[in-house]
Amino acid sequence: MSGPLNIGIVCPYAWDVPGGVQFHIRDLTAALTAEGHQVSVLAPADSDEGLPDYVTSTGRPLAVKYNGSVARLNVGMRSTKRIRNWIRDGEFDVMHVHEPIAPGVANVAVWSAQGPIVATWHSSIEKSRALNASFYLAQTIMEKVRGRIAVSELARRTLVTHLGGDAVLIPNGVDCGTFTEAEPFEGYPGPGKTLFFLGRAAEPRKGLPILLAAMPAIIEQNPDIRVLLAGPSDPAEIKKKLPQDVADRLNFLGLVSEEDKVRAFHSADIYVAPNTGGESFGIVLLEAMASGTPVLASDLEAFRRVLDGGKAGAVFENENPEDLARVANALLADSQMRADLQEKGRHRAWLYDWGRVTKEIVDVYRSVRTPGEIVTEDFRGQLGGRFARRSGWRSDSNEATADAAEVSPPGAVS
Q1: Pair (139, 80) in one structural domain
Q2: Which terminal Cβ of the chain has fewer Cβ within 10 Å, N or C?
Q3: CA-based angle 73:74:79, to the nearest 5?
Q4: Do 102 and 409 touch, CB atoms closer than 8 A?
Q5: Same domain, yes or no, for 243 and 184?
Q6: Tens of pLDDT along 229-280?
Q7: For the whole model, what pTM was predicted?
């Protein structure tokens, strides 16, 4: 069973909304395709326009808040039919479902299929009443999954604690080659130093307020400091709450392309990740490290693991602006310290290159198959349809105006 595989990948979150799981699946698809495998992705989407050829939409998603973030999920009678058609027509050698317990496309896909099914857990949650309450329902999914992957030790711990069983640990990947070189933005790097933040400004767990609170102390020792901010934001709303001296140093990039994200890394002296929690990995840290940009991150367990316990990047006490400023000032004042972090960070990032990670994932695919076996529709798997009807989830045009539900299944948007 060493030839190319026909792989169906299920994404639970809206494809056209930026998120860590979506980026993971996009990059995995590219890596698998480069190795000669055939890949089809199933995901919710607001519109079919602009979707890659390899993505099949299950319909419009609904915004759902959990794990300190907002995900856009989708399930209903119409989407269930699309899921079943995709499974039946795909004749996949293996189906790879991401976040299989997240309500929506992922669990309905598992209920609707039988055969070689692999699942990946991305998120980490310490406590979840919703998961505990739905334990037996989740077991109907677990029983059908032959291969389990966790992207981090924290994600594996969530699986073991809440659902039982175990998983092979295969980290998120990064295409290191695309980050090694880029033209900085015009005027960067300048005579002064530059910090870079990437994330949704309005999402508290991304930690932008922590960085902004640290800025006065950083400015005091670095009068020429500038900050690049990438991600969805309202610049006017943010600036009006800040001292003028801080507001004047902020350069808002908004949503950036992959190319401009790399340029931003190469324009900065330090990448700052002040996230306050809810992270099971830290792919953006690896991207910064692959770019040769020293990393300064909060001391979340997930971040410390990526940074090799602080050897490949500096850390500060979580939710402590004073400590962030202290460590940032030390880094900005010591070019040799930054150079050491650059070297160690680059070396560390290559350990997570997609070239390595993809081979491990394909090994899992092959381990769950018997020769000639394919994924087929499970006509007994009507539980998904009953779940959709009883829960009130919809996939028609009314989804867009439905109230967001508050739930806490595994899932993370990084």
Answers
A1: yes
A2: N
A3: 160
A4: yes
A5: yes
A6: 999 999 999 999 999 999 999 999 999 999 999 999 999 999 999 999 988 8
A7: 0.80
